[in-house]
Amino acid sequence: MSLFLRPSFSKGIPNTFLRKKRKWPHSPYKTKWHHLFDQQQAMQNLKQLASSPPPSQIQGKTQNPNKTPYLLSCLVTSFKAYDCEPTTGAYRFLVKTLTQNSQFTELDLVLLHLQNFEKFETPERLFSDLIRIYGDNGMFREAIDLFFRIPKFRCVPTVCSLNSLLSILCRNEEYIQLVPEILTRCRIMNVRIDESSFSILISTLCRIRKVDYAIKLLNSIIDDGFEPDRKVYSLILSSLCKQKATSSSQVIGFLREMKRVKLCLSIVDFCNVIRYLLTKGKNIDAFGILNDMKTEGIKPDITCYTMVLNGVIEEGDFIRAEELFDEILIFGLIPDVNTYNVYINGLCKQDKVEEGYKMIGWMENLGCKPNSETYKIVLEAFCKLREFNRAGEIWREMKLKGAQNLHAYRIMVCALIRRSEIVEAFQLIEEMVNRGFVPSSSTIEEMISVMCKAGFVAEALLMLRKVFDHAIVLQAGAWEALLLGLKLNPGLTNATLANLVNT
DNA sequence: TTAGGGTTAG
């Protein structure tokens, strides 16, 4: 206050108004400043009161839910003390504090007070935030009621609060069904829906795998003159690609449609289409999409190339695979471990396993560390060619580098069994189980089946014992193989069996 | 540069 008096004193003019009226002179500037200052003081006071527990709680009494909640009375008294009207900020503070403490009964009374006793226009933001909070707490009915009550708070609901409501309802299986009715009521209330609301609805339809409906809605809003953004199209495309029942003509058709409406297609869109085509075995079409990308001016990244390279190799088109690998390098892309794995697999498919093995050295020199899968590919290829000595060498290298994994163990165990090195195979199974590589039931089934066919029924039973120790559930196939093995080995006496099972 | 997305074969 002294700051205000200083200028008049410094000029030596006596403040006669103050002396005569014993009141501060009013200037619009001072009034506004004072008003804001008072509100700030009241707000500070409110926060201070809120941080200390209410007297009833100190005395250990429970509050009467019908009485004015403590925080609300703090708000009223604080602002009264400074002779000013409560601000929206104060109410937002109350809403935040009460919702954080899950005091929703108190919150209802605060809202009622805001609705009936205040005069100011409540900002819509308060409602959209509260609707989200209600949604997070599973209070969908309260959220809907609040939305339709907004006009009572001297506020015009717009698409902002509607979108809040739509996004929470669309996340709930039960309340999602109320969305059409709510949209109809909104039309009566003159709440203008725009692209953002449709985007919520389309995303929801995609999420619940009703992509056909999403496309229908997209088409109908375009007819109504709306211009959905690229993200909506991308989402539909990605959902189409994820849906098993989608035909490739549907996917390609939608991609064409995106091009037709002159949307700026992204690398993700192309990537999704490529992945979809590859899963459908349309490897050559996937290669075509990669070329389309380039003509559209989008540089495919290493992931796109790796996927397409794999498709081309699957087709057995090794010349094109070589060209593609060269193209990766020419474009300045750095192949990563996945790319090398795909490429090495291609070499192995052509029985160029030694070349594949050499590639591991080259990739290491180029700073790309091979992983367990890299070795596994080569290991498996050597086993397939029955080059067990080379496989053994790879296995030892893998051991040195700690690159053994579950698949590699499975391959080695099967290779040993095929070579009738049953003792070694057992040792390896023991080792893998001890190292935490629990074989899957299908692996066990495969091992038991191989063992039984090779006549090692007793050993297969021993393995069964190990399997039980690890609580692995066996599929019917394993039991079948065992029974067949037992039938083929009548020499296996009951005593031997009992001995094996009790080991 | 990142985002999200990628590899075997039984």
UniProtKB/TrEMBL annotation:
<feature type="repeat" description="PPR">
    <location>
        <begin position="405"/>
        <end position="439"/>
    </location>
</feature>
<protein>
    <recommendedName>
        <fullName>Pentatricopeptide repeat-containing protein</fullName>
    </recommendedName>
</protein>
<feature type="repeat" description="PPR">
    <location>
        <begin position="194"/>
        <end position="228"/>
    </location>
</feature>
<feature type="repeat" description="PPR">
    <location>
        <begin position="301"/>
        <end position="335"/>
    </location>
</feature>
<feature type="repeat" description="PPR">
    <location>
        <begin position="371"/>
        <end position="401"/>
    </location>
</feature>
<keyword id="KW-0677">Repeat</keyword>
<dbReference type="Pfam" id="PF01535">
    <property type="entry name" value="PPR"/>
</dbReference>
<feature type="repeat" description="PPR">
    <location>
        <begin position="123"/>
        <end position="157"/>
    </location>
</feature>
<dbReference type="InterPro" id="IPR051222">
    <property type="entry name" value="PPR/CCM1_RNA-binding"/>
</dbReference>
<dbReference type="Pfam" id="PF13041">
    <property type="entry name" value="PPR_2"/>
</dbReference>
<dbReference type="InterPro" id="IPR011990">
    <property type="entry name" value="TPR-like_helical_dom_sf"/>
</dbReference>
<feature type="repeat" description="PPR">
    <location>
        <begin position="336"/>
        <end position="370"/>
    </location>
</feature>
<dbReference type="InterPro" id="IPR002885">
    <property type="entry name" value="PPR_rpt"/>
</dbReference>
